[in-house]
Amino acid sequence: MTNAPVPTTPAKPVVQDVDPGFEVGHLDRFLKQALLDLQGNMQLERIGGGQSNPTFFVSYDNRSVVLRKQPRGANLLPSAHAIDREYRIINALAKSAVPVPKTLLYCEDTSIIGTPFYLMERLNGRVFPKYALSELPKEERRAIYLAMAETMAQLHQVDWASVGLAGFGRPGEYFSRQISRWTRQWQMSRTSDNEDINRLIDWLPKHIPEGDETSINHGDFRLGNLMFHPTEPRVIAVLDWELSTLGHPLADVAYSCLAWHMRPNEFDGIRGLNLVELGIPTLDDYLDHYLAHSGRRQGIAIFHLVFSMFRFAVILEGIAARARAGIASSDNAAEVGAQSIAFARRAVELIQRQSK
């Protein structure tokens, strides 16, 4: 008597936290055809607390990659979540000294998971979401901040035309165009009126500094968007490029400085903390380090900080609007969106302090 084989049901992909309409079976079949060498059952895990393009680890027995996709929903703001631009700039910077993950493929076919997406290699490293760096010894914290400044200087030194980004944005008049853009975004996404925002919309166009220049602008250059070596205070990847464009380098610089101006309960800032005791450089030390490595002479002015706070306040308001519409890409989107008020208030306080 022979034993007949027992019929088995193919294992289903293991899934954690995906949006409705995300057809994981379609993704599994697509990836096994596109990447060829994948073995075993797919595991899909959502990662990060970001408010932007949802990000997942996609793991098989022999390989793990990272997937980034547009959020679901039809009410996305114009130019928001441009996943194709993100893929393009990461590819372009692979030719430069700026550390970025290796891209694997881009897919615009929305029948697979409901939105366009791309894949990139999964790196082994550390990401620090909070500026106080409480998980690190004191002696390493300063080096982490200085590495952030050095990496930003590397980015701003890239010849954007030579790496294929000549059409990635419009050179010149960056601040004027951005003020108009974020004013429109505010009008489209605001969930309530805000007199501080109204004042900033009036003040900013009248105070744009002289001197114009163009570099690659990350658009969200902060500690939490950098991946560091597992044991060394060295950046191995700059992440989250969805807001990148050609712009003024001081916009990135000012944005990266916001942590020094915000309190711990305001997007995890470090204002009011004992920086000497923590081993974190002062804002002046951080800026001096950037200037030394970028070859620049001009530092940021009050305008650049006010602009960055205004812009971020509008971004946070957009998150609040998506939360109300039920299409936010993170569970705490409503809470984060409420902090829009704090950034607008701090920007107005900077203006008031300057005018005294």
From TrEMBL:
Domain Aminoglycoside phosphotransferase: 44-264
SUPFAM superfamilies referenced in this protein's UniProt entry, alphabetically: Protein kinase-like (PK-like) (SSF56112)
Tagged with keyword Transferase: yes
Gene3D superfamilies in the cross-refs: 3.90.1200.10, Phosphorylase Kinase, domain 1 (3.30.200.20)
GO molecular function list: transferase activity
Pfam family, any one: APH
Keywords tagged on the record: Transferase
Keyword Transferase included in the entry's annotation: yes
The protein, known as: Phosphotransferase family protein
Annotated organism of origin: Sapientia aquatica
